[in-house]
Write a structure and sequence with these properties.
The chain is built from 38 helices and 16 strands. The protein has 843 residues and is an alpha+beta fold. α19 runs antiparallel to α22 (430-445). It comes from SAR86 cluster bacterium.
Length: 843
């Protein structure tokens, strides 16, 4: 069989380039594998003389003759001869299948046991909806036919539907309820094969549509729609089959590596290295959306089928079972209904969706949204009404996209559907990210949000026009569909759109300004000293007024939270909130304090309640630290540092940890400054599974004492660390640093995903003339052991790191090092160039 499979696989790859646009033939390969498997299994079953005592059936995917290279083999064995006592040959049969290299899922039951399990277990029941006899006599087949024929006696349609709905909701939630993740699971993700299967299972059991032909002939999908559904199903099967062949683990996941490999094998022509992958994945996202709509339509159709509620008139609409539909189906003469139906959904909390026939009508008539439609003031007012909806806004916008209405009305939105983002920062396509931004805004407004956003909830509900924030959220990344500076492109497009909606010049300019500057707050909070009065003054001058600041702050927070769940944390929130409040004070015309005044006030607020001895310890140390140090920490952080110093001997090395910023680690280190200290510390952190997100490295003016603060994630950060846990970690760091505990070797293997999608490394240098220090900034893709390798370069050139700003943004890092030579002088231009070259080589 192996030789046959090798030949089949070779034939598959020869056909693969054609398959991307015409994947129907994938069923030949699936069935061929199934046929060969049938022969092998049946022959083995008969060789062991099992056919007279047992019936052998293929179930699940195998029952459908869909065997992928990594598929499990699901079989059901029905015991016919109740007198048999010796199961030795049956056990040998199963063992043989495993020996042949098959992953077997099997059950052995008699008639009574089978009826019992099928009536109790919906998953077992489901597997028999696609049974197929392999080796079974008349009696065995009659047993199965009787069960399937009387299936309603075992599991009622309503129970089956409800179980499948719960099952699907749980599965979707595990994938963040989106088919637009950049590395989807082709079997289980929303829009995957499981969505198609779930839909067909419901059609089979709840609508008695057991075959594809019966589904085609039912009045659920048009011929055009079902052609698209079949093609989408075949395309996802094609990708799963090919991933199974090229991957050795997680074989149903369309990983970045698989995307690259498949794009090459498909011979997709492109100018850029990532463009061929982009083309492949846009096809995937399109087909996944088709399967999602197929699945959603069937669930909606069952809800309609199962209701006996009377239709209620509602103006131009009817409402039945909390779904709204058109009374008049002539949209050509009633174009106003296209937006009006969404206005109505937004006005009523009880409306959960659109009648399936109405949804199909809207989709088929999306082309009515032409240039004349877009210029119509009445339709513009309707769209603004939709954005002001008190209810259901997130689901309304998603539905508008699924029906083709959003992309018809906003051309730029259509240009980013399914567009990947090769920055290792975003984990969603541009359109999915956009929806999540607006959803976050909506949830923040209705206070359907985690604790810690009370201020933002109050602020968003004070905005004079919420639609301004939503439109900025919709347009902030739409410029990515055109290439170039997406902020500038989006700013221009959003201005034109706002004016087309009839919004005032002020509102249109505000939206445009927000889109243009949507990255500004994040950049400042990550890269600059947000307690430095000059930083605040510059940002306040850019904002000019509180209105802009309020809108920009809310846009920024909801943008970052919709980018990648792993990069949002309490530390980032705290930085943004501090920048917001400091800038607000400046715009409120509160007198801008000098850095010296800020430092003095901050120190006084901390030491005023200390005893004289403790006060002397703190003030004597802090007067030896550059004043900029006190601008980089909040008062609460400085207070914690002071308490840590006081609790220890005056000359003792201090390594204190605490869990802060929603489960991140904050590490404060006061230690004797030695050559290579930073390198040693980052090696220790790497060995202990501590990943640095942000670092502040400082030394006293005489270079004798180092005061370093790190914000880090821990490999066990999902677990709430106790005080004993942080104490234990602190002890380990001290022990390794002192040499009493051995440092484990750090794994610095490269991440193949990063290798393929890494952004060009940018290394720049400048001089801080005021401090007489060199500055080197490195922007690159993060990788294992990167910080250690950078620290090794600085040490090899005998360079002292005075301070550093380590910023990790998902898979991207932006690290800035303030350096000087061992004599506290500027480093020569020649040496700086050598350092930059060495850094580029290790990255």
């Amino acid at each position: 069989m192996k030789k046959n499979l090798d030949k089949l696989d070779s034939k598959f790859w020869s056909w693969f380039p054609q398959a991307i646009d015409n994947p129907k033939k994938i069923n030949f390969f699936l069935q061929k594998r199934s046929d060969w498997l049938d022969k092998e299994i049946i022959q083995n079953f008969k060789d062991l003389n099992l056919q007279n005592d047992f019936g052998l059936f293929a179930i699940g995917g195998y029952g459908n003759k869909e065997i992928f290279p990594a598929s499990d083999i699901d079989i059901s064995i029905i015991q016919i001869n109740q007198k048999i006592k010796n199961y030795e040959n049956l056990e040998k049969f199963i063992a043989n299948l495993w020996d042949y290299g098959h992953k077997v899922g099997h059950s052995v039951r008699n008639k009574k046991e089978l009826k019992k399990i099928i009536s109790e277990d919906v998953k077992e029941f489901t597997s028999f909806l696609s049974f197929r006899p392999l080796s079974a006599n008349k009696e065995a087949i009659e047993i199965i036919n009787k069960i399937v024929g009387d299936k309603n006696k075992f599991i009622s349609p309503s129970k089956f539907f409800n179980k499948k709905k719960i099952e699907q909701e749980g599965r979707h939630a595990s994938f963040d309820s989106t088919s637009f993740n950049l590395e989807p699971d082709l079997k289980e993700s929303p829009g995957s094969l499981r969505d198609f299967q779930t839909g067909t299972w419901i059609l089979n059991h709840c609508f008695n549509l057991a075959t594809i032909n019966k589904i085609k002939n039912a009045d659920i999908f048009s011929k055009k729609e079902f052609t698209a559904i079949e093609k989408a199903h075949n395309f996802i099967k094609l990708l799963r089959y090919s991933c199974n062949l090229i991957q050795t683990s997680s074989r149903n996941r369309l990983s970045f590596n698989s995307q690259i490999e498949l794009a090459k094998r498909a011979k997709i022509k492109s100018k850029r290295s990532t463009q061929s992958v982009e083309i492949l994945m846009q096809k995937y996202f399109y087909h996944a959306e088709v399967l999602s709509i197929f699945n959603e339509t069937i669930f909606d159709k069952y809800d309609e089928k199962g209701t006996f509620k009377i239709k209620k008139d509602y103006g131009d609409f009817f409402i039945r079972n909390n779904r709204i539909g058109f009374k008049d189906t002539n949209l050509q003469e009633n174009k106003h209904l296209i937006f009006e139906i969404f206005v109505k959904i937004g006005q009523r909390k009880d409306l959960i969706g659109i009648d399936t026939k109405t949804a199909r009508l809207l989709k088929e008539n999306a082309q009515l949204i032409d240039e004349n439609f877009k210029k119509n003031n009445n339709y513009s007012k309707q769209f603004l009404q939709i954005l002001r909806s008190p209810y259901n806004l997130s689901s309304i916008l998603r539905k508008m996209k699924r029906l083709g209405i959003m992309q018809a009305y906003i051309k730029e939105f259509g240009e980013v559907i399914g567009q990947m983002q090769f920055d290792l920062f975003h984990i969603y396509t541009v359109d999915e990210h956009t929806f999540k931004v607006v959803r976050n805004m909506r949830q923040m407004k209705i206070n359907h949000i985690d604790d810690g956003f009370e201020i933002e909830n109050e602020l968003i509900n004070r905005l004079p026009k919420i639609e301004i924030l939503y439109i900025a959220g919709l347009f902030h990344d739409l410029g990515k569909g055109k290439g170039g500076d997406h902020s500038e492109i989006g700013a221009e497009a959003s201005y034109k759109f706002a004016k087309k909606l009839g919004m005032s010049l002020h509102d249109a300019e505000l939206i445009s300004w927000l889109v243009l500057n949507h990255l500004e707050m994040s950049s400042i909070s990550q890269r600059k000293d947000i307690y430095d009065p000059s930083t605040i003054k510059d940002f306040a001058n850019k904002c000019k007024n509180l209105e802009r600041l309020n809108y920009l702050y809310l846009l920024t927070i909801n943008d970052i939270r919709a980018t990648n769940p792993s990069i949002w944390n309490g530390w980032k929130h705290g930085l943004l909130r501090s920048l917001f409040f400091n800038t607000r004070s400046s715009l409120n015309k509160e007198r801008d304090k000098s850095i010296k005044e800020v430092v003095k006030d901050r120190i006084n607020s901390i030491v005023q309640d200390l005893g004289q001895g403790d006060k002397n310890i703190i003030t004597n140390l802090w007067k030896e630290i550059d004043e900029s140090y006190f601008g980089r920490f909040s008062s609460s952080q400085l207070k914690w540092q002071a308490e840590s110093i006081i609790m220890n001997e005056e000359d003792a090395d201090i390594i204190e940890l605490r869990q802060n910023f929603n489960n991140l680690l904050e590490i404060f280190i006061k230690i004797k400054n030695v050559d290579g200290l930073f390198l040693n510390l980052v090696k220790i952190f790497g060995a202990l599974g501590v990943e640095i997100i942000d670092a502040d490295i400082s030394t006293t003016k005489d270079k004798k004492i180092a005061l370093n603060t790190f914000i880090a994630s821990y490999k066990y950060q999902s677990i709430k660390l106790t005080q004993a846990d942080t104490k234990s970690l602190s002890t380990k760091i001290k022990a390794i640093h002192s040499g009493s505990k051995k440092l484990n070797k750090i794994d610095v293997r490269s991440d193949s995903k990063n290798m393929h999608f890494k952004k060009p490394t940018k290394i720049t240098d400048s001089i801080d003339k005021q401090k007489n220090r060199n500055i080197i900034t490195i922007e690159t893709t993060n990788s294992s052991g990167l910080l250690v390798k950078m620290a090794q370069v600085f040490k090899s050139y005998d360079v002292s790191i005075h301070s550093a700003k380590i910023t990790t943004l998902g898979e991207k890092v932006e690290d800035t090092f303030f350096i000087e030579d061992q004599n506290i002088n500027l480093i020569s231009k020649n040496k700086i160039q050598k350092i930059k070259k060495a850094l580029s080589e290790i990255i």
